[in-house]
Amino acid sequence: MNIEEYILLHSDAEPEYLAKVNRATHLKLINPRMCSGHLQGRVLSMFCHMIKPKRVLELGTLTGYSALCMAEALPEDAVLHTIECDEELEDFILQNFAGSDHGYKIKLHIGDALTEIKKLDEIFDLVFIDADKREYLAYYEAILPKLIAGGFILADNTLWDGKVLKAVDSNDKQTIEIMKFNDFVAKDSRVEKVMLPLRDGLTIIRKR
Ligand SMILES: C[S@@+](CC[C@H](N)C(=O)[O-])C[C@H]1O[C@@H](n2cnc3c(N)ncnc32)[C@H](O)[C@@H]1O
Fold it and tell me: Atom 25, ligand 1: which residue's CA is nearest?
């Protein structure tokens, strides 16, 4: 047994419907590894139980797995906005939301995250950043004014497969931009922050 299997054995099981969405994601997509999956899904759900947000924003829906994990822990009157740029995923995402008891809490926006954020007239309690790795810093600056004081940002993939520790190829825009984001947030006095070595790295940021 490896450490991940041990962790999963001692955490809640993946809810049946989410396991179905996870399997369907693996059958349908060329790169299903992008999907949060069992462990991170349980972590996102637990964070929502802890934070009790009423307004949530997600950047990067993929097939809706992470949105559904957060939605299950939200109260009935909460809203989760999720933004996805790949319009070919729209029908599959909506089908996944429709089949869940919690899908009604989720509002899907198809379009570029930076463009769609500007259109949202909301103040958020929690934002999950998981879209284009080259835009993390731009996302951060765009959402910070729309985050309530004491609100949280969760930024995924901040260890980027360990590439943040190695010499970077000048063409590797994703690693360069993730590193810029990490360095910027580390020094930003507007927020408190802690980086967790969960899966591909998850940074928790709290606005002061
Ligand atoms: C890592 S996946 C998201 C995984 C999902 N949050 C989950 O855990 O199940 C990243 C998603 O962001 C989307 N994306 C990439 N660039 C984007 C952009 N500029 N605006 C909105 N979505 C974008 C991709 O199409 C992809 O579906």
Answer: 86
